[in-house]
Amino acid sequence: MRPFLPLSSLLFIASLGACADTADTGGPEEAGVLVAALHAEPVATFVGQSVRFDASESLDTLGVAAAFSDSAITEFRFDFGDDGFFVQEGYWINHVYSQAGTFTATVTVTEGAQEATASVDVVVRHPPPSVLSLDVSADDKAVIGEWVVLEGRGFREDNVPTVRFDAVEALYVDFLNEFQFEIQVPPGTPSGFTDVQVDFPADDEGDWTEEIRVARYALATDAWRGRANVIEFGEHEQAWPLSQTLELEAAAVVAMSSDGSYALLGDARFQVALNPTIALVDMTADWGPAVTAQLPDIGLGPLHGIALARDVPLAVVTDLTGFTVLDLSDPANPEVVGDREAYQFSEMSPTAIALSPDGTRLAVLSTFNDRLRFYSITAGGIVYDDDSVDVGPGTQGLAQHPADSLLYVLGGGGIGAIPPDLDFGNTSVTVVDFDGNSAEDIHGGWIPVPNTPIPVDIAVGPSGKAWITTLDQNFGTLGQAFQDITADPVDLGAWQDLIESLSNLGFGSAVGVDGLEVGAP
Q1: What residues does 245 pair with on adjacent strands?
Q2: Contacts of 83 (CB under 8 A, 6+ apart)
Q3: Element (H, E) at 14
Q4: What residues have CB less than 8 Å from 6, skipping those under 6 apart?
Q5: Which label site among 17, 80, 384, 421 has the fewest CB atoms less than 10 Å from its CB?
Q6: For the segment 352-380, what is each residue's pLDDT rounded down to a tens digit?
């Protein structure tokens, strides 16, 4: 039987127990620390994709996670680092970044008067571009100078690709929208089948290569039939005439834009035309070149020459007695600039003309006095600079180096000269630089060019190599044979030369000439 304790003793023991419960704490239990936590999924993403921010692992002062309903955290303030901001009671939220970069996102959690903050970095990149195709229009050919469209997705204005046609880089690549770039086929592109290479600078992905067909056209004027024949070039030295022709009465003067996209075709000095016409030809039209505009009554009398500036949309047309300036900013709608400028009678017979690359200076070749005259192109019209350079005798042709301001003047009195001089050994070239305020004969005189009898015309390529068209070289042997027979009618060798020359006689030839820039052809 248990011992019996008096009631007073039980009260004493209870009071001792109450004192023992609080003796070591010094008061109520202290509050815990508020803790914020933030996770992002994914931490590396693309512009336009959703990122989930989760603060569920944040702890209230009692250590209860925010994911539980009895958590004491009452507010979550999300700052996404891109000027985006949102306040809510829930612990997670989605956000879409519209720009690329590294963004520090933060969350601030609140419990009563306490706050805690956590952050996470999110890397946002642009999605890599994806090229689908190159649209070269309905004829399935990319023509020199034509604007073709690169199609795909993920394109950006700050990520313009380098585009090469074979090894030739396109100079003009324009951003249209996120699905298209527009590219002009560069004039140096070889015709035939060519690899197009697209290289995006800001991304390792997205580069693309495809083979396309590139076409190059030329216009061969036929003044006697009033038309221009169209020639298409293929791979290497392939070329063939197309069945189509461009009809223009007495068409014989033609000039091509530097990018190859259009040409100006005019009436010729070989026919009497008091009201000459200029036709603008779109060289990039589907299925072949096409006339897109005509300017009637462009001058007085037959046209003598057309010159186009390389770097600006400007042309000068010279007729029997004066000059006309054309603005080609919109090639489909050429406009006459200012009034036609007449030149003095002493400046007649402008056999050929050339414009400086920037369109500020005009060179005019005169066969009557064997010299180049120079004019300035101003807002008020064409002004004679009282500047000229003497060139080789019998001038008849003028070619401009496509890459600079050098002019190559052909002399020799061939059938293009006025009057002609059928000498077999007097062909010459004068090289003139007309960049700047004063023109200069860079070699101090004209250069004899051998083996080019009776010259007709001259052309110069980007390398500086010139091509001189002449009557057939056998004409030289033929002429020499006649001279020898006249001096000695029984000269059997001369008669043999005469027979061989007649049996091999052709109409004309083209002679390639290197070294004119250094004066040593």
Answers
A1: 229
A2: none
A3: helix 7-22
A4: none
A5: 17
A6: 899 999 999 999 888 777 888 888 888 77
- Tokens encoding 163: 């585009």
How many CB atoms neighbour CB 414 within 10 A? 26
Whether the pLDDT of residue 31 is over 80: the answer is no
Convert 31-68 to b/e letters by CB count within 10 Å (16 or more is b): eeebbbbbebeeeebebeeebebbbbebbbbeebbbee
- The per-residue pLDDT for 284 is 94
User: Percentages helix, strand, coil for the chain, rounded to the nearest 5?
Assistant: 10, 45, 45
Q: What is the pLDDT of residues 336-356, one digit of tens each?
A: 888 788 776 556 567 789 999
Mapped onto helix, strand or coil, the DSSP state of residue 173 is strand
Could you please report the per-residue DSSP string of 316-346? EEE-SSEEEEEE-SSTTS-EEEEEEEE--GG
Tell me the C-alpha distance between 446 and 201, whole Å.
49
Axis crossing angle, helix 492-503 with helix 474-487, rounded to the nearest 10: 150
For the chain, the average pLDDT equals 84
DSSP 8-class letter at 63: S
Query: Cα separation of 401 and 357, whole Å?
Result: 10
Distance of CA 336 to the CA centre of its chain: 26
> Whose structure tokens read 């933060």?
106
CB 182 within 8 A of CB 174: yes
- CA pair distance 135, 138, nearest whole angstrom: 9
The whole-angstrom separation of Cα 197 and Cα 161 is 10
Q: Are 80 and 55 in contact (CB under 8 A)?
A: no
Residue 357 backbone class (left: φ over 0; alpha: ψ -120 to 50; beta: rest): alpha
Neighbouring CB atoms inside 10 A of 165's CB total 22
Cα→Cα distances 175→151, 157, 195, Å: 11, 6, 21
Q: pLDDT-based confidence at 304, cuts 50/70/90?
A: confident
Count of other CB atoms within 10 angstroms of residue 299: 26
* Mean pLDDT of all residues in 153-170: 93
Compute CA distances 87 → 43, 69, 92, 295, 303, whole Å: 21, 18, 11, 69, 78
In this predicted structure, the answer to whether residue 3 has a pLDDT above a threshold of 60 is no
Is the per-residue pLDDT at 22 higher than 50? no
Lowest-confidence segment of 37-46, 176-185, 192-201, 313-322 by average pLDDT: 313-322
Task: Please report, as a single letter, which amino acid is at residue 230.
Answer: V
How many CB atoms within 10 Å of residue 312? 18
Instruction: Report the candidate in 32, 181, 15, 43 with the shortest Cα–Cα distance to residue 105.
Output: 43
Average pLDDT over residues 401-412: 89
Q: Which residues of 167-190 are buried (b: 16+ CB within 10 A; e: fewer)?
A: ebebeebeeeeeeebebbbbbebb
Using a 10 angstrom Cβ sphere, with 0-12 exposed, 13-18 middle and 19 or more buried, the burial of residue 90 is: exposed
Specify the pLDDT at position 337: 85
Alpha helices (runs of H) in 452-515, residue ranges in sequence order: 474-487, 492-503
SS3 state of residue 228: strand
